Amino acid sequence: MFNYIVLTCLLSFAGGAIYFLGLRRLLSAQYAKYFVLTIICLSFCIPLFIPHIPNYSSALQQEYTFDHYTYNEWNVVDISDPELLECYETADNSHQVCKCELIQQSKTFLAYTPDPMYNVMNTCTIPAFIFFLGLGGLFLIQLGFKIYGLYQITNLGYKTKGHLGGKTYYLIHLSDNSLPVSAFSLLNNYIIWPEYLNELSKEEQEAIFWHEWAHVQQKDTWQQFLLHLVQIFWCFNPMFWMLRKELNTLNEFVADEITINRTKSVRSYANLLLRIKEYQLQTCQPSFSLAFAQSLLKTRILRMIDPKPNQPFHKVFFVLLFLILFLLNFYIQPILEQQTVAYTQYQILKKANNQTGQSYFCKDCLVKTLKNKK
């Protein structure tokens, strides 16, 4: 599991670099959103489809370790072996010289050497596992509270039912301005409609409605739920937070584009956003959704004035992304798994060393055992 999470993080960095350093300026908001979601999905899926290398460490147990001095199946010493000659040069006495010959003859032996880094990892493995397990549990509880909070909102005010594009929605009319306008989906689709929106003109109300309906069409609520689950595994992945922030921004861009296509007026829609933001600042409304977030407002208006064109070769970018992540995974995964095998073997040899005091253990026994299991 650890290797899998590390590998997904590395793939997300590669995909994020491709997006932020190159394609971000080329893709329209809709395609950019698809591309970012594809980065996240491929980062988790690709490692599952590449075969894993065999973990021979599981067969390296105490019954396959014994003192190399009791092993009699020696080969003739190869005096031209550079490693043996180097060992001779560093030997201070005859006992060490004999030890060099034993090691050179027993090429099928594993040598135990204390490793400070592995020792620290061995000490921290269980506490780290408990910590991340608890952290993941907290994130799940947080997600549960968010879903429960949305459910509670559905019981506020009074609701009017409507149908649009084969979908049913409910307008939650509030008698006050305790919540800003926003949209979300649970079992049904909901749009929160604060009292101050009734003061707007019919055209302005339609613009607000189309913006929130766009979030429903794009299934942004379910996207947020997915990101909360991804957060359990990527909470310490900096690229995750960058991609998440980018997705939240792109959600607003896409909703703005859909709204402008309906209203046909960029200027009036931009003025409407400014008026609503001014009203929210005056009344100190809490930030419940990202629809009119202050940090996004300037960027959104600039995007409306200078929209990004649709990229005609966007499918090529998705294919290249898959190939790059696949090849990167194919190269990195064996390295990570070999390190895991080495660490597991070190744990076994360390335990055997503590029990017997030996420093060299039979590796040939392990290979024969593995062959017999095939």
Structure description:
The protein is an alpha+beta fold and 374 residues long. It folds into two domains: 2-54 and 118-328, no CATH class; 56-113 and 345-373, no CATH class. 64% of the residues lie in helices and 8% in strands. The chain contains twelve helices and six strands. The longest helix has 43 residues, at 314-356. The chain is elongated and about 100 Å long. It starts with a helix and ends with a helix. Residues 55-69, 284-292 and 365-374 have low confidence and may be disordered.
Q: Briefly, what is this?
A:
The chain is α+β, with helices and mostly antiparallel strands. It has helices at residues 2-21, 29-49, 82-90, 94-105, 116-153, 202-217, 220-234, 238-263, 266-283, 294-305, 314-356, 364-373; strands at 109-111, 158-164, 167-173, 182-185, 189-193, 360-362. The protein folds into two domains: 2-54 and 118-328, no CATH class; 56-113 and 345-373, no CATH class.
